[in-house]
């Protein structure tokens, strides 16, 4: 049985850990709980009928047809780890007074510790006809989109963020025609700043993707998207304008929420028995303050941290944000947290899609990105937050 350090040299047994949400943060927490010696009852509640899986494949390898869909673990693994998996089940209410979670099948689960890893849901702006568009969050969404694309199918993506651009690249790989509608002056402008945003836009344009910037969608009608720039023909419309954290369960129970479930640096909510991790967590970062990150690496790390925190073990939210993407020959890793106004320095061959980008605020490196150059991300992570001579960052003679 796992134990919790009471802070007075004694320990108390922890029984019945319930994990709500069946994404990567949840799986990472379960892996860590068992690895750290917790041998009590462990229940995983997920609203999708599928066992947990990693979401990056949905807009990349699986959608493009490069790879088959893959689960994080098969049924045998959960049986071996003695995890009671309730797939296709939704948690509908959380009662903090009696320590229970009500399910949509009428049953209740008691918990000693609870992890909320409920993720996020696609945003659907109030546009006339939005109900006819697709979104991409689940494997069923990806399957429907993939099955609908044929050679020449014209897919219009509303939103030029990571999902929108990854889908555009996958549509092109499937023989379709991709169109991206972006409200800002450039796709990814708020994430990468103007220099790298222009690079990514040019990359897509070279591959035949049609990009419309500073464009507002006014309505979606059969076969067409009505925009501020005119009519855009469409066989399929995909809305990818971001995701909203799934906080209803927490808010209904009286937990503190904002742009996510508010947690401290150990991922504890305002109730000491309840923790949150992954896309839904508005966590207290030891450097950046309140921070909510919707990326693969963060889900893994926060799942591990939440598990350790539930068991009373050491650890805080102190790592730099990290994400990756694959779009055509643009294959990259990014670490840190830059702002659009930060200075950008490039080292390498941008035209050959092999370079490193650094963002600086004053003399301090705020982020780094390696494109087509591998095994350097750990070095970039070490640079983030340090003051570094710009000549060193751009000097190709430096290893």
TrEMBL record:
InterPro entries to which the protein is assigned, alphabetical: FAD-oxidoreductase/Apoptosis (IPR050446), FAD/NAD-bd_sf (IPR036188), FAD/NAD-binding_dom (IPR023753), FAD/NAD-linked_Rdtase_dimer_sf (IPR016156), Reductase_C (IPR028202)
Question: Which cellular component, as a GO term, is one annotated location?
Answer: cytoplasm
Q: Enumerate the spans annotated as Reductase C-terminal domain.
A: 322-395
Classification via SUPFAM superfamilies: FAD/NAD(P)-binding domain, FAD/NAD-linked reductases, dimerisation (C-terminal) domain
- Please state every residue range assigned to the domain named FAD/NAD(P)-binding: 16-303
Q: So what EC number does this one have?
A: 1.18.1.3
Extract the GO molecular function terms from the UniProt entry.
dioxygenase activity; ferredoxin-NAD+ reductase activity; oxidoreductase activity, acting on NAD(P)H
- Pfam families per the record? Pyr_redox_2 (PF07992), Reductase_C (PF14759)
Alphabetic keyword roster: Dioxygenase, FAD, Flavoprotein, Oxidoreductase
Q: Which domain of life is it from?
A: Bacteria
Q: Does the keyword Cytoplasm apply?
A: no
Q: Name the coenzymes or cofactors required.
A: FAD
- The name under which this protein is listed is 3-phenylpropionate/trans-cinnamate dioxygenase ferredoxin reductase subunit
């Amino acid at each position: 049985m796992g134990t919790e350090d009471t802070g007075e040299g004694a320990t108390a047994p922890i029984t019945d850990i319930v994990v709500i949400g069946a994404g990567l943060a949840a799986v990472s927490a379960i892996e860590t709980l068992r690895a750290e010696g917790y041998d009590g009852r462990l229940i995983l509640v997920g609203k999708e009928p599928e066992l947990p899986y990693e979401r990056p494949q949905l807009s990349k390898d699986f959608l493009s047809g490069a790879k088959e869909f893959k689960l994080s673990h098969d049924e045998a693994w959960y049986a071996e780890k003695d995890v009671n998996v309730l797939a296709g089940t939704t948690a509908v209410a959380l009662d903090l007074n009696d320590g229970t979670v009500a399910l949509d099948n009428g049953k209740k689960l008691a918990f000693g510790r609870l992890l909320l890893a409920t993720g996020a849901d696609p945003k659907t702006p109030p546009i006339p006809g939005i109900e006819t568009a697709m979104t991409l969050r689940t494997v069923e969404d990806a399957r429907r989109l993939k099955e609908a694309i044929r050679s020449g199918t014209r897919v219009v993506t509303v939103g030029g963020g990571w999902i929108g651009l990854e889908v555009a690249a996958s549509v092109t790989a499937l023989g379709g025609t991709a169109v991206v509608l972006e409200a800002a002056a450039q796709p990814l402008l708020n994430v990468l700043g103007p220099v790298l945003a222009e690079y990514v836009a040019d990359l897509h344009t070279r591959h035949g993707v049609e990009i419309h910037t500073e464009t507002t969608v006014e309505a979606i009608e059969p076969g067409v998207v009505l925009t501020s720039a005119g009519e855009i023909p469409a066989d399929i419309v995909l809305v990818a304008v971001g995701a909203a954290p799934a906080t209803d369960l927490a808010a209904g129970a009286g937990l503190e929420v904002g742009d996510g479930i508010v947690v401290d640096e150990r991922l504890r909510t305002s109730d000491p028995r309840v923790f949150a991790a992954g896309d839904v967590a508005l966590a207290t970062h030891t450097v950046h303050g309140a921070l909510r990150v919707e990326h693969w690496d963060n889900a893994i790390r926060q799942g591990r941290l939440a598990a350790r925190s539930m068991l009373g073990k050491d650890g805080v939210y102190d790592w730099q944000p990290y994400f990756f993407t694959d779009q055509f020959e643009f294959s990259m890793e990014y670490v840190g947290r830059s702002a659009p106004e930060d200075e950008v320095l490039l080292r390498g061959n941008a035209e050959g899609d092999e370079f490193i980008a650094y963002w600086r605020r004053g003399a301090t490196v705020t982020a780094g990105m390696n494109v087509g150059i591998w095994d350097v991300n750990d070095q970039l992570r070490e640079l983030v937050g340090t003051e570094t001579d710009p000549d060193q960052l751009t000097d190709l003679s430096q290893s």
